[in-house]
Amino acid sequence: MSGTQQPEPTGTRATGPQGRSARALLARLDALRAGDLPVRGGRTMAYVYDSGLDGVEELANEAAARFAGVNGLDMTAFPSVVALENAVVARAARLLGGDGHTAGTFTSGGTESCLLAVLTAREHARHTRGVRDPELVLADTAHPAFHKAAALFGLRTVVVPADPDTYRAPAGAMAAALTGDTALVVVSAPSYAHGVIDPVADVAAAAVRRGVLCHVDACIGGWYLGHLRLGRSSDAWPEAPPVPPVPPFDLSVPGVTSLSVDLHKYAYTAKGASLLLARDAELRRYGWFSHASWPGYPVVNATLQGTKSAGPLAAAWAVLEHIGTDGYAELATRVHRATRALSEGVDRVDGVRAAARPEASLLALASDDPRVDVLVVADEMRAEGWYLQPQPAYGGSPATLHLTVTAAVADGTTVRLLLGALERAVDAARRLGPAHVDPALAEAAALLDPDLLGPEEVALALGLAGIGPDGHLPPRMAPVLAVLQSLPPRLTERLLPEVIGRLYDTGGA
Q: Does the pTM of the predicted model rise above 0.70?
């Protein structure tokens, strides 16, 4: 949940059968965008990725426009699509430990890549091992996309608590959780919430011993970590701190059978670009769908989508070719330098600390002062013009602030501005005190059965968080998040769709 709902600009609703001028429509789109978080400049430290390079966005837009009407459903009708996809997959395979047998699929994003990885594993387990009640083994720090996949495709999740000190998936406990019904075990490189790399080699070795597939979620880290390894030998940034060795995490690790990597993150391509890499085409085929039992055209889908624009693929190919391997290695080195500078700067801010030692480009900041609530710090940072993503407490992890460091943050000025704003925000949060939740009300709400909630109970629970029937979120999100944090997770999961659903209003559209 990123923040407050913005007022709808006048004139966005349909007004009648007559069309409107292109100029008026584009002006309205600009007005709508004015209420969003900025996507350039490095001040939005989640959701968006900015290379800081001139011309990259323009190139991506031009490339996407040339392929916007090309349908990626049928490569025999549009061979340009398979040519571009082959080139993109080959580049990623070379970077991430693949070989001549590596196969890949271009997807709409990390969630679709993770969904396909789980679907592929389910079908592989069913057809090669006869598994009829498949399980998915993962740490509680794994991305929710895998839980979504399990829900959609009928797998039971076996969740292993992460190490409470390092937040990594514990290799021994992960290995012990594998059974004859395990279709897939998942590790992260890095995990989103804390920015640490799971023990990929150890878990993959355990998977080999049990004959289980092992997937590496490198959606956010793969492109960055792969090029950071190359940047170790670069003299492009001699003043940068030494780049530490990157632990093995990719397809070169024995036992790793698939890997997801987003291009619209640290490859800085346009949104809607990710890859699922598989060890070979034989494994990949288990995730494809084909159908010929109807009177229409034979259907074969490599993704969850059928019809899809080739625009994002063309944009991704163009940006990858434009920046190039050396360019990405330099960008990765810049990001490493900025992450290191921010981590060291946070150590000097009284009231917050790094929850874990960053091993990639992500930082998670926790409070080390009971008077400082990081959820309140997030509100104060937003008032300063920065978006740091609030992450409520769960399990062994305290509430944290998530920072995704991109190349746009790499100049010293931006880092100094961010640290200065953080220091002021922490001081302000200390004066304001933590977001308060009435214990009696929270206790009463916790007694609600998520499966039996009716409209009145939903309204009561949301009212505790300051969300009324009009659906408008309060200007400060800390009280909302504090309430949701205090509730049992299943109740929070029941209420979140209600919160978001109230933002939508089609009346009069």
A: yes
